Amino acid sequence: MKLFSKLLCGIAGTAALVTAPAVATAAMQDGQSARVLRLPENITLFGDTLPSVVKATAIVNGEIITQTDIDQRVALTLIGSPAPSAEEYRLLQQQVLRNLIDETLQIQAATVEEIEIPQSDIDRAIARVSQNAQMTPEELTTFLDDNGSSQRSMVRQIKAELAWQRLQQIKIADYVNVGEEEIEAIIAKMENSRGQTEYRVGEIFLSSTPATDEQVRQTAMQILDALRQGGSFVAYARQFSQASTAAVGGDLGWVRPEQLPEQLSVALPTLKPGSVTVPIKIPGGYSILALQDQRQILTADPRNAVLSLMQVTVPIPAGTTTAQANALVDRFAAAAADLQGCGSAEALAAQFGGSVLSADGTVVRDLPPALQPMLMEMNIGQATRPFGDLTEAVRALVLCGRDEQQVNMPSRDQIEQQKRDERVALRAQRYLRDLRRDAIIDYR
Q: How far apart are alpha carbons 177 and 183 in whole angstroms?
């Protein structure tokens, strides 16, 4: 699972133009706009049933998407995930086909603008993906083949993302401006929000209408079940979410509860980092939120402090009984509590036949969660409580230095870029809608 998450994040990072887009406002507006059509709730359908778009190919403006394209992309999405049910697999096939159609439209639109993606750019992207997956490019190719996918499928996705990024630059980004008054208003708002909690949030948004509400809710519950079984949130967001954030794995960036729809703003503070919500009904559909992290606005986060540590390791000799091990740990804990600074760490280790390892430049948030609260409250020279395995070794960390994070107001350039990114994301979503609307798509 970790390997697949790294691989998916690597692909998503090759061309993502926007890293903190706005919440799925446009997608929700789509659901509300259905009211303009004034369609009755109970309708009678005429004609033959639409052909399945999963078992057949599609031709997009004359370009063919084959069943092999669909199967290999599905396999890429499922690497490292639990085996889906038949219904989940069918839904994934449908979503993958929609994604392939969008990618085809993006590449075609870039071609019209005479945008070409050099092979060297694709090679660099593959190298980054391979590095994230801790493989060589050759090993990655073999890994994909062994899992029913292919490098060709991955390259197609990379090429589409690179083409779409460059197309956005010449068609949208170059024409987006942010005024000085807007920047001043954002700075004032941030100052007024200093100290308030904001959250790093991921979202999977599924749009629905009154007629499709129950079906969409069931789909959302199936996605939730897959996530609870260890499925990659990034992967499911990329394949299923209908918000503009799907391209970046559902990442909403750092948001405050009041920036979200009311139903989501109530649920967000109840989450713990790493947890997800049940599908939440909001105007226009259902959202599943994942909380990645939280912090206080313009306030130093103690988890970002950089520490200088010494680790004292005491081995547990083979054949030691549980009672003997517990007695050894008690003596070690008492000695560690009386430690006279980092200069005494070597003597402490020698007392128990142990060893010392130095670790400068350690960030608090990179340590195991159980150790973080202790280290944030400790003074220089103090040691943590012992931790480890009674059958192998126990350890204690000695705090030798702490450099606190300095938090400053983002620069005007950073604020301007963030605002530009948000606007580019929204306009790009509208641009893709126009491409879909004008496309000639033949399902076979």
A: 11
